[in-house]
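Researcher: I'd like a structural prediction for the single chain below. Treat it as a standalone chain; there are no partners to consider.
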Amino acid sequence: MTTPVNDSEAKTPVWEARADLVVVGSGVAGLTAALRAQALGLHVLVVTKAAVEDGNTRWAQGGVAVVLEDQHDLDDSVAKHAEDTFTAGAGLVDEAAARSILDGGPAAIARLRADGATFDSSGDGLLARTREGGHSAFRVIHAGGDATGAEVERALVAQAGQARVPVLEHHIAVDALRTPGGRVAGVTVLDRNGVPGVVRAPAVLLASGGIGQLYQVTSNPEIATGDGLALALRAGASVADVEFVQFHPTVLFTPGARGRCPLVTEAVRGEGATLVDGAGQAVMAGVHPLGDLAPRDVVSAAITRRMALAPGGVDDHVFLDATSIAGFARRFPTVSAACAVLGLDPASDPIPVAPAAHFSCGGVVTTVDGRSSVPGLYAAGEVARTGLHGANRLASNSLLEGLVVGQRVAEAVAADLAAGLLADPSRGRLPSWTVAPAADRDALQRVMSRYAAIGRDADGLAAAGSVLDLSAQDSPLWTHAAVEDAALTVVAQALLAAAVRRTESRGCHVRSDFPSLDDGWRRSQLIRLSPSGQPVLADPIPLEGVA
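Model: Treating it as a single chain, here is the predicted structure.
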């Protein structure tokens, strides 16, 4: 129910609603949580800044990494999946958290299939499986060949429609309401025309996705601007591992492209494709025992080095030779269609590819149940840092995490409500309409791409920080663009602060001036906002339980 509120000035909300749980975001984690929470009897409201189906989930191609015992995975186990996750995470995976989330995978897939999701079959009654970078076994199940995320999102959106889950489309969450004691009690929001409203609720779940728009080229959609991270920081939550931004090795290269570019799923290499340079030489030869299926940070770094060694100076792409894959268009219809736009046929033409910003391994520090350090504030999916990904995400672990943690966070909210641990929403203070520093987006993306992407050093990170400081202007958060620009600015500042301090190379974080791994840095860095609104490094997360 919505209630009119005095609209005496444009800065105050003009409407108010109430719920038990507000879910910010409509991807795999958010919709999974909303469906489970409603099934538990909670009044749920989903807030999403685009259409309900327009989150990052729909763009996921490869699949879901999961070990299914009823699918006769006799050569695999959850323990092996965990070991691959630890290896990819380069020493910063929380072992207990990872095992807990991976253990929850089979039940999560069973629920999703029962709710109508259809995965590809191998023809013998079992699910088809492929292998991606960093995996020691064929354990990645997929849908529509290379359209897994689209099928997962379709099934969840259909379920949400059937269950009549209320969804507020084209609204962006701005700030949390908090009680005098610091508990979260709802959120302020803006519609696409800048009309403000407030949703009072004892629990807010951030499931708002990633930060790919920090960079000029990304596999993420335009809405991946870090709004959830910024909201969490302003609410007093801690974030960690934000310096670890995974660049997918193979995004379809288009000269002069900006923003979201088509992904060439890692499963193409899992089916036998190889990376070659302009001279036809193998990029991954002698680089890693797993060759083209090495972890993503290794492959992205190898491609970047090879491009820098190109005759005549730096090249801007390499090639993925998939001509050996029979029936490519049938197995990878999404990739095939994207190539066709460029006049390419992967059956006969090598595919031009380059690394692009893909996934944020860090985020709001949470438990495996989605609880953050602020009572009433929860997070799940890419915006959260559960400890599963460490310094580099293992391919196809993200959809699994969203399914598992999304379910658990709904149950955690219900338990916390029943135990009386959450705030009375009526005690939540309406924040004065926020003013926050916002840098010029084009300048921000250019300096982050140049100085804070795959290769970093102290001078470049300092230069990026200076550009942000000089271009940032206090901006009232009265439009979607203003909220996004302010979010990108504070997230960029947090990333730079963590990257400057981490004087080593680990996982996705590659320092050319500190190229070696340093076990003294085998820890995660916590970041909070100072009273002046600047990201500051806090105490590190202790080593115990980290693999």
